[in-house]
Description:
The chain is mostly helical. It is built from four helices and no strands. It has helices at 6-12, 16-27, 32-39, 43-61. It starts with 5 loop residues before the first helix and ends with a helix.
Amino acid sequence: MSQTTPLAKALAGLPEEERIVLTLHYLKSMSAPEIATLLQVPERSVSAVISSGKARLSAMLGL
């Protein structure tokens, strides 16, 4: 029997773009430039998504 952690539940509740970027950044240890190259988007966009996603995730977890 597997249990879903609060972090996994919160990640699943994020918009897809934020979930992908945060997963690549925090779980795969990719930098913003690496993510930007992979996703073919501006680095500034990736940095903004990391910031907003981190804030949304913190709020969802009550931190």
